[in-house]
Structure formats: structure tokens, C-alpha cells
Amino acid sequence: MKLVSIGTVAFDTIETPYGKAERVVGGAATYISLAASYFTTDLGLVSVVGGDFPEEELKYMQKRGINLDGLQIKKDEKSFFWAGRYHNNMNSRDTLDTQLNVLADFKPKLPASYRNAKFLMLGNLTPEIQSKVIGQMNKKPKLIVMDTMNFWMDIAMPALKRTIKKVDVLTINDEEARQLSGEYSLVNAAKAIHKMGPKVIVIKKGEHGALLFYNNKMFYAPALPLAQVYDPTGAGDTFAGGFIGYLTQVNSTTFENMKRAVIFGSVMASFCVEEFSIARLKGLKKTAIKKRLKQFEQLTSFSM
Amino acid sequence: MKLVSIGTVAFDTIETPYGKAERVVGGAATYISLAASYFTTDLGLVSVVGGDFPEEELKYMQKRGINLDGLQIKKDEKSFFWAGRYHNNMNSRDTLDTQLNVLADFKPKLPASYRNAKFLMLGNLTPEIQSKVIGQMNKKPKLIVMDTMNFWMDIAMPALKRTIKKVDVLTINDEEARQLSGEYSLVNAAKAIHKMGPKVIVIKKGEHGALLFYNNKMFYAPALPLAQVYDPTGAGDTFAGGFIGYLTQVNSTTFENMKRAVIFGSVMASFCVEEFSIARLKGLKKTAIKKRLKQFEQLTSFSM
Question: Which of A97, B60, B117, B304 is the most buried (most CB within 10 A)?
């Protein structure tokens, strides 16, 4: 297997200024795997769901090539649930409810076929679980990408830093980069995080794009300005999925390919936000992805 | 004369997390003209100062080629004064003091040599004064660029809209674009503002760069991520100065040149914020501008 992703597979209830979606499919690993499945069909998912998770959604993932041998199904328990409300500007949100359910004592167990993957995507979960998954690999993957969030900085900073030390790429949003590093300038924040272990830092700035720090080199990918953003949920995970999906496809970790990976991450995220839940990520046409890629190319290209 | 700029020439007292600068030189027309002077030496300034404004500063502007025949000096009065304090994130600020002084009854009077300028930059001032300056031109310039701010939207929206109707390009920050249009999405905001008159809208997003809307085309220029931003005062005006300065130099208003102009505006603004007041804009070397331009090119360039 080329790419293994871990993270939640869950239900979300989401309120945005454009409407409400009740108990729709969500979860970091869901978004990551769906986005990555447009770049590689040799990928597996590590997570846990309850008996309440719809079988047809799992079948759809499998149809897209996502191996689910690493997905534990606990028939008598309930799936992880999150409810949130976005503010008018869509850049901030309140958590209304969090029910850990099956996540409360999740012990990831990688199937043998997963343990030689060259690319490992650690979606947002407790840093201990992320660390455990690294430990279950037969050897260090070619690239480990880790996503995390402010929640773990608030309650588990030491464990978080131990996990960060083991990864090659950290994807994180701008506020989180500031919190983690104690530096306001993102340039200085990236330098400080670099010293914690990761060679590469990707700072996600939502509607303002993403910054890639690769040794002393910097790359800035804009987000595509959109007329309507219906639901930002999962945009960061979708970005991560497009990012590592592309790197898996080209089997490379050079700066030039990481730049392209950031663009593909942004392309996939730009689709994600156009509808609630994973609706827009289902059945995307290659031509639609190509067309949007073109828009990204035009958006920043200039000649002197 | 090729380029005429109007706006304030003033004193600022500025507090940022990095320090305080008392009664230093500021003003929209100061920043605009200095930035533009790196692209054309056939430019003039329309403004008013009191007898308190230092002669050596005026001499420096003249040394840079800026014609001051349009600058009224009211010996017995005081220059416009603004005091502000920036918050930690540098993206928002509080106004601590505003003293109109000479601005209270400023009546711009364009010297005859100014009235055939092909490029007119209306820096932030009351919309009535901006309108009056357009009326004093012998014929419609090839390009009129207007900058404004939320203050006029709060107290003089009808007059503001009358002036906006007469200009080709409106430069405005993201929050102001939202306030002016009533649209949250910047894509929709630009469309709404387009209907108010301007063919081109440049939305300045501070550390997040700038968006150019040109008919149905879009261009995104990042801001250069900097380790230290000492003082954002005048960054928007400096951007406008670099923008119209470049267009004046190439005597063109095509999309390709507007894209380059946005990049040059961003280049000049990236210098502006590195020191208090106009310090960094003084005596910039051509090689420094070229080097930074290269950094902007590298920042967003990728190939697929």
C-alpha cells in the first residue's frame, strides 16, 4: 500500500449562514481519503466508527479505492459526533457539541498490508494515537505528514511536541502556528516549528491561502476566491488529502513537487467548501479538477 | 506632467508593539508620491501643510523629482495630525487623535502644468475634494485611481458613491469592500463595486496580499511574509503609489500591466512596513527593489 491515512470518520451537525446540515458524514480521515483518492487508488484508512455509520458511505469509499481493513466497526457503539456553528465570516466557529463515543478508547491497529506504506498521513487525533501509528509501521515511511489543532496545544502540549518531533511535514493553521511557536510572524513561527522537528511546515490560512516553508524556501498558494462558501468543514483535511495524495502519486518530496502538492491541496479544498459535508468531493470529474487547476495557475501567474 | 497625486501630507504619532514614533512624517500623498517616484520622475503632488512641516522633508521630495507646485503651505497654521495605536496582530488599530488643522478648509487648486496629466491618483481625502480635483483636469485622464476608507462610508456614503462613479480603479481594503458593497464574499463585493462605476477593483488584504479584479479576470498577489513588521502605517498608500507609478512608467492600463503594477505595489509596501514612517522608502536602491521583485516571483511561481 502506498498511502495510509488516520483520523476520524464521523458525523457532523453544521450550521453556517447558508443553512444547517444534521448528522452528515464528516471526519478528518473521510475528507483526507476522499481527496487523496483522486490521486492514488492504493490507499488505506485507519479509524473507528460505530454501528450507526451508514454502510453505503463505506461502500462508496471502497468504490473509490480506499482500503478499509484498518477501519474498526464497533457494532454496539456510536460514531464520533461533532456539532459546530460558523460565524458570518466563516473563518471562525463555535463548537456546540462533541461526543467522543467510539473514539474514547480507540486503539489503532494497522493491518499488515498497511505497515510498509511510503506515505503516512496523520489526520487530527490525539497526539498519542498519532504516535502509536508511527510506531506500528515496519520502517519509517518516506514521508509522514501530520495535521493537528489548537485543542491538543491547550491540553496535551508535551505529548503533541513528542509526536511533532517524529514527522516530516506539519500542516497547521495560522493561529495554531502562532500558539505552538509563541511567534506572531509566520516566518518566525515556521522557523521555531522547524526546530521542533519537521523539515517542512505548511501553514493554512483558510480563505487567504497556504504558505509552504521548505528549509529556507517559501511558497505561497492562494485560495481561490469564491462567490459562495457554503461550509468550510473539512477544508483543511481535504487540503491535506490533496497534498499527500499528489505526493504519493509522484512518489516524491522535492520542493517543486511540494509546491504542486500545495496547489492540488488548495484545488481540492476549493471544491470541498462549495457544498455541505463531502457532497462536492463525491464523483468529481477529472476535467473539473483540471479546469480549477488552470484557474489557480492563472490566478497568480505574471511575467516581468 | 504624467502623474498627479492628491492626499494628505501630515504628521503621525504611531504606537506599535515594537515602539513609538512621535510626530513623524506621514500622509497618504507623501507615501504615494515617494513610492511612485521610483517609477517616474514626472509627477506632482496636490496637498496642504502648515508652517510646522519641515522644509528638509519637502526638499527631499523635490530631490526625488516630486513637483510641489500643487502643495499649499499655510505658514500660520498647523499640518494635519493623526495618532494611532496598532494592536498586537498589526492588522487592526485604534485612532487616538485626529487634528484636521489645515485640512479643515482645504481647497485644492491644480497648477496649470498638472491639468493634462494622464494618470491621476486620488489618495484618501474627503470624496468632495477628490471629486473637485477630477473636475479641475482639462480632460479625463487615461486612468483615475481612487483610494478611500471606511470613515467616508460611515459619514458620507452618497458623496463617496458620486466620486467612485467617476474613477477607473478603486483600491480598498477587504473590510471596506464588504462595507461598501454589503457583500461578504470578495468576488461578489468586487462585482457590486464594478456596477458602481470602476472597471477595476483592487482589494488590499494587508499581510494576506491583494486581489485585482479586472472585468471578469482575477489576479492574486501575495504579500511577502516578513519576519518583522514594524509599522503598517502608509502600507496601503505605498501600495497605491507603486501601483500607479508603474502604470505611469509603462503608460498602459492592460490587465497584464495591472498585474505587474499590483506586484510592484506589493513590493513597495513590503519595504514601507519595515521601518517607522517613510524611513525605509527613502533612498531605496534599484537593486533592492529588483531583489525583492525576484522574491515575489519565486514566492508564487510553480509549473505543472
Answer: B117
Question: What backbone phi and psi angles, to 5 degrees, belong to A18?
Answer: -100, -5
Would you state the cell numbers that stand for residue A146, as one nine-digit string? 501530520
Per-residue pLDDT for A91 more than 80? no
B225 neighbourhood in chain A, CB within 8 Å: 185-187, 211, 218, 220
Shortest CA distance from A191: residue in chain B = B227
Q: Say which of A227, A229, A299 has its CB closest to residue B220.
A: A299
Cβ pair B218, B185 in contact under 8 A: no
Using the Cβ of A87 and the Cβ atoms of chain B, whether some distance falls under 8 Å is answered with no
User: Is A297 in contact with A224 (CB distance < 8 Å)?
Assistant: no
- Cβ separation B302–A256 shorter than 8 A: yes
Q: What is the pTM of this model?
A: 0.94
pLDDT tens, residue by residue, A28-38: 999 999 999 99
Distances (CA, A) of B135 to B89, B129, B138: 40, 10, 8
The reply to whether residue B228 touches residue A186, judged by beta carbons under 8 angstroms, is no
| Max Cα–Cα distance, chain B, nearest Å | 63
ipTM comes to 0.91
Give residue B90's pLDDT: 74
Per-residue model confidence (pLDDT) at position B89: 73
> Can you say whether residue B197 is alpha, beta or left, with left for phi > 0 and alpha for psi between -120 and 50 degrees?
left
Minimum Cα–Cα distance from A303: chain B residue: B260
